[in-house]
């Protein structure tokens, strides 16, 4: 779509957003042009630097998670398999961050194909992440509340669940591959990676393509997580089982951090949807406020890809033990260091705990 030109209100609103939101930046037909307040160049370079830093931390941290879980294949639980796939999703997304960093600091210079690929991987990372966390909550519910430990230890079905999660995540992200293009927004050389929905009411299509993924890829998994963890935590408080309570700490931390990073963005996205379907009035100040909220909360969401390994390192004793075990077997550290950190973890049970916990 290299020859497409945006003019008038489309150009004003395109720059009011940060140029690469999934379905933002396209005003309704009744919207008046808003004054363009250009984003600070210093801020753009700072955000670009932040993305590169997150990329490096994510690549290192999630590679260690993959290494630890893969190395302890014989002692791998169902939760470990889900966390392994969660780390892989974060790794794939981290590979796109340098592209978004350059885009934020300059313009889109990577062509049409990479525009589609990076946009899809961003969506897949988000949806696979929350779906994997939802299935972890179901696994913990079955193991602790229903006491079906034997069922949770049958790991052969987990690979099919993970395959289904990946397929569903790609399917729900497919609009990014269809409607995302790299094109020139005016007569200058600057390029954007943006939606181009041809024919009909484009704003209505954007609302539909936003509501469906949010419903099935965010709200429903979130309800499942709240139910499973609510009942599970209630049961743990009743039984006062300290081992199981400790085993839940990492998972609860992972879920809370995920919500802290991505829930604000989804709330901002929901507010933008309400504005576009006229549930709330659209005005330049309100549009600008929502665009600022989307910009800032998406940065927080991008940062999520490097946080889980930090949680495992600081809270997950078994993760530290297994990582040190790998280092000791490779002769990088002495076995005395390994024995020192193994204290307190020998009594953990594989049916409730995992490599990372």
UniProtKB/TrEMBL annotation:
It is found in: Cell membrane. One of its GO terms (cellular component) is external side of plasma membrane. One of its GO terms (molecular function) is C-C chemokine receptor activity. Pfam families: 7tm_1. Residues 61-312 form the G-protein coupled receptors family 1 profile domain. It is a multi-pass membrane protein. InterPro entries: CCR1-9-like, Chemokine_CXCR_1/2, GPCR_Rhodpsn, GPCR_Rhodpsn_7TM. Keywords: Cell membrane, Chemotaxis, Disulfide bond, G-protein coupled receptor, Glycoprotein, Membrane, Phosphoprotein, Receptor, Transducer, Transmembrane, Transmembrane helix. The keyword Protein transport does not apply. Its main location: membrane. The chain crosses the membrane at residues 45-70, 82-103, 126-148, 160-182, 216-237, 249-267. The keyword Coiled coil does not apply. It comes from the Eukaryota. GO terms for biological process: calcium-mediated signaling; immune response; neutrophil chemotaxis; positive regulation of cytosolic calcium ion concentration. Interacts with IL8. Interacts with GNAI2. Receptor for interleukin-8 which is a powerful neutrophil chemotactic factor. Binding of IL-8 to the receptor causes activation of neutrophils. This response is mediated via a G-protein that activates a phosphatidylinositol-calcium second messenger system. Binds to IL-8 with high affinity. Also binds with high affinity to CXCL3, GRO/MGSA and NAP-2. Belongs to the G-protein coupled receptor 1 family. This is C-X-C chemokine receptor type 2. It comes from Eublepharis macularius.
């Amino acid at each position: 779509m290299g020859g497409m030109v945006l003019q008038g209100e489309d150009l004003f609103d395109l720059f009011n957003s940060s140029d690469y939101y999934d379905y933002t930046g396209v005003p309704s037909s009744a919207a008046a042009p808003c004054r363009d307040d250009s984003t600070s160049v210093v801020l753009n370079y700072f955000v670009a630097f932040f993305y590169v830093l997150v990329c490096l931390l994510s690549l290192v941290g999630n590679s260690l998670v993959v290494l630890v879980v893969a190395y302890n294949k014989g002692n791998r639980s169902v939760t470990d398999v889900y966390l392994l796939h969660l780390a892989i999703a974060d790794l794939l997304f981290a590979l796109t961050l340098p592209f978004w960093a350059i885009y934020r600091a300059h313009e889109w210079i990577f062509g049409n194909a990479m525009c589609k690929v990076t946009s899809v991987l961003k969506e897949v990372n988000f949806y696979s992440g929350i779906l994997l966390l939802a299935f972890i909550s179901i696994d913990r519910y079955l193991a602790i509340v229903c006491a079906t430990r034997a069922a949770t230890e049958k790991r052969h079905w987990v690979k099919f669940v993970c395959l289904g999660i990946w397929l569903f995540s790609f399917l729900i992200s497919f609009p990014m591959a269809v409607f995302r293009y790299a094109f020139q927004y005016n007569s200058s050389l600057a390029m954007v990676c943006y939606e181009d929905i041809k024919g009909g009411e484009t704003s209505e299509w954007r609302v539909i393509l936003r509501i469906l993924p949010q419903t099935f890829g965010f709200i429903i998994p979130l309800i499942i997580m709240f139910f499973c963890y609510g009942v599970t935590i209630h049961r743990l408080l009743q039984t006062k089982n300290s081992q199981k309570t400790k085993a839940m700490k990492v998972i609860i931390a992972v879920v809370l951090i995920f919500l802290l990073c991505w829930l604000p963005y989804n709330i901002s996205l929901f507010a933008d949807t309400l504005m576009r379907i006229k549930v709330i009035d659209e005005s330049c100040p309100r549009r600008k406020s929502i665009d600022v909220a989307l910009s800032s909360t998406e940065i927080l969401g991008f940062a999520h890809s490097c946080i889980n390994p930090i949680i495992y390192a600081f809270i997950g004793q078994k993760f530290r033990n297994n990582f040190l075990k790998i280092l000791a077997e490779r002769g990088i550290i002495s076995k005395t260091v390994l024995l020192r950190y193994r204290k307190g973890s020998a009594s953990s049970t594989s049916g409730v705990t995992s490599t990372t916990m």
